[in-house]
Design a protein that fits this description.
Shape: globular
Structural class: alpha+beta
Number of strands: 18
Largest sheet: 6 strands, antiparallel
Oligomer: single chain
Strand order of the largest sheet: 2-1-5-6-7-4
Helix content: 40-55%
Length: 453
Amino acid sequence: MESHLHIRNFGPIKEANIILKNVNVFIGAQATGKSAVAKLYTILKAPRKFLGKGDLHHIENNSLSNKSAYEKFLNALEEYNIRSFITTDTEIYFDSELHHLIYRNETLTYTAKLTAKIENLKKLSLDYNTNVEIIKKELVEIGFKFIFFSLRAAKILNEIKYEQNFSTLSIFYESLGDLNEDNLLKIIYIIEDIENDLSTNTALYIPSERNFINIIKKTSFNLILNNVPIPKHILSFGAELEKLSSKEFPLDFIQKNLAYKSVDGDERIYLEGGKSIKLSESASGIQSVVPILESIYAKKQATGHHSLVIEEPELNLFPSAQYALIKLLESDRRDPLFEDFGTIHTYTTHSPYILSALNNLLYASQVIKKLIAKARLKSPEEDFGQLLKISTQTVRGIINADIDPESFTAYQIENGYVRSIFNQQTGLIEDNFIDQASDKITEDFDALMDLMG
C-alpha cells in the first residue's frame, strides 16, 4: 500500500519527498534524521490513535481541521521524543489510500479518504438495483488496494471458491456475481472494520533502546514512581511486549539449538544440551534480537495488517546473523504487484550487511519472475500458480525469502535532505555513503601499502 510523505523544516530534516511502500529502508549517519522520519511515519499511519473519538464528532465532509487536533498531534510527537522538531515554518503532508493529513501554521487537517468511499457506498446501496455496477467497480478498486478486504469479502460472497481457489483476488472478482443487497451490507461493515483498524492501530515501533526493556521489566513501577524520564515510546514498546503471546521460539540462526522461552514471566535462553540462562544474562545480541522476534512471532499468530518499524535491526549481531535475521523477518512476505498483504516493515540502519541482505532478497524476487518467464516460453499452457510455486521453491532452495522491487523503497538522509538510493531499473539498492565509507577504508589501506613499497 503506497503512501507519500513530504516534510519541510522538521528537526534535522530541511526537505524530504518520500514514497513509502511495504518495505522501507532509511540510512544515515547519527543525528541526520532517519529515526525522526521513521517515527513521524509511525504516527501518521494511524492518526485516529492520537486524535481520539471526540475529535471525530467535529468532522465535516470526512475532514477535520482545528487547534485541538494540532495539540494532540504535538502530544503524539512528544511520545516519540520529537516534539521539539516542530517549528513555525514546519510543513508536513501525508497521503495514503486511507487518509490525507496536512500540518501547517499550527493547524492539522485530517481527511478520512476511505471513510468517504464507505459513505458513498452506503448512499449507492439505497438504490442498489440502479447502482449495482458502480458499487461493484468501487469494491474492485478497494479490493485491489486492500488485500485483507478481498480475503474477508470473498469468504462472504462464496465460501466454496474461497476454500478451493489459488488466487484470493480472482475469487473476489469472480464472486462479485453473487453480490446482493444483504451481503453488500456485510461487506461494507468489513471495510469499516479494516479502515478503523488501520487508522487507529499504529505500527509497532521497535526502538534501538530495546535492550533497555529487559533491564527495566522488573523495576518499571519504581522507575515510574520516581519519575525517571524514560521516553514514552520505549515504555509503550515494553507494554506491548507484555501483551504478546509468543512465549517460545528458536534462535538457531545465531547459534545451533539456541532458543528463547518464557514461563510465568521467567525469560530464559536455552543452550545446546538443555542448559539455560536468564535472558538478562545472555549476550547483548540475543537481548537485542529477542524483542524483535517476540513481535514477529506474535504478529504471525494474529490476523490483519502487520506493521513494524525497526530501528537498527543489526544491533550487536555478527554479520551472518544480521543476514539471517533479515531473511527471517521477510520470509513470510507475499507481496504481488501493487497489492498489500498487510506486512509493512520499515528499517533504519547503519549496516552494509543489512543493505546487502535486502539486495539479495530483491534479486531473489527477480530470479523467480525470470524462471516463470522461461517456463512459460516452454509451456505456455501451464497454470501460472503452479509455475509460481515451482519457481519460488527453486529459489527458496538457496534463499528462504524474497522482496518484490515494486514493494520496496530505500532512502539516504544527509545534510537535511533525503534522496532515493533504490535503482528502479536494476531493482536493487545502489551505491550509497555506507559503501563509500567502506571504500575510504580500502583507500587508506592501499595508501599505507604504497608506503611499504
